[in-house]
Amino acid sequence: MNLSEMIDAYGLTVFAPPADGTVEAAFGYASDLLSDVIANAGKDCVWVTMQTHTNILAVASLKDVGAIVIVSDHKPADETIATARQKGICLLGTGMPAFEICGKLYAAGIKAAEG
Amino acid sequence: MNDTNGTQMHLEYPVQGGDFSSAGGASSRIKNVLKRLGIEYETIKRIAIASYESEMNIVAYAATGKLLVDIVPGEISITAVDIGPGIPDIEQALQEGFSTATPLIREMGFGAGLGLPNMKKAADEMVVESTVGIGTTVKMKFRLT
């Protein structure tokens, strides 16, 4: 499943679109601790989190994360959205809590991230 | 390719204590330089982890600081120098889970006591020097094969 298909399949809110929707969403990582994510999230992975502040973008960009999915209807700040769009970092949202979206993505074949 | 083709370079990036909004900027610039030099992805990834944690430590704890990058054939060094409170017990600070972070820092997803341990794991060598009331210097080396 690529990022565009993932967005459609789970009705994800697109705060900032992927630079390339055809990038394969092969791996996922779920964490709200940025030190955990910077150490363990892998290239092109889907990062599921509740964090919404702009620092998530630096982490995503440094680890070449494919998409950030913000859960439980938390909304990123306008500044976070603007920076994500400017830098081409895919920023998505869902009303589902983390456990639920992770379960759906895992069932769809997206496996645990390889750091 | 994982060498610098004989390139030697010294770069400095200032980091402002307390400035969470532009935090990560120095690490991003370092990563872009390494990409342009054609350093292999595994090494860039290790340096990205170490430089980001170093930068966040300066932002979260110090008054001001900088990241120094030294590129020589076969090796890249990242040195984080700050003017700040210093670390009274370095052994303790290196333990996973130990943190002196404020609740505000923790709410943002930092301060889990993973920073220095992550840096140590990412680097081939790491030396921490600190003087309480003066500041901290962390020097990390990354060997290129």
Give the SSE map.
The complex is a heterodimer of chains A (115) and B (145).
Chain A: H1 3-9, E1 13-16, E2 27-30, H2 34-40, E3 46-49, H3 55-62, E4 67-70, H4 78-87, E5 91-93, H5 98-107, E6 111-112
Parallel strand pairs in A: 2-3, 2-6, 3-4, 4-5
Antiparallel strand pairs in A: 1-5
Chain B: E1 9-16, H1 25-36, H2 41-61, E2 64-72, E3 75-83, H3 90-93, H4 103-107, H5 115-122, E4 125-131, E5 135-143
Helix pairs in contact in B: 1-2, 2-5
According to CATH, what is the class of chain A?
Alpha Beta
Can you count the helices of chain B? 5
C-alpha Rg of chain B, in Å? 15 Å
Low-confidence stretches of chain B: none
Q: Tell me what the CATH architecture of chain B is.
A: 2-Layer Sandwich
Estimate the global geometry of chain B from the Cα principal axes: globular
Count of separate structural domains of chain A: 1
Specify the CATH class of chain B: Alpha Beta
Q: Name the CATH superfamily classification of chain A.
A: HprK N-terminal domain-like
Rg of chain A, Å, rounded: 12 Å
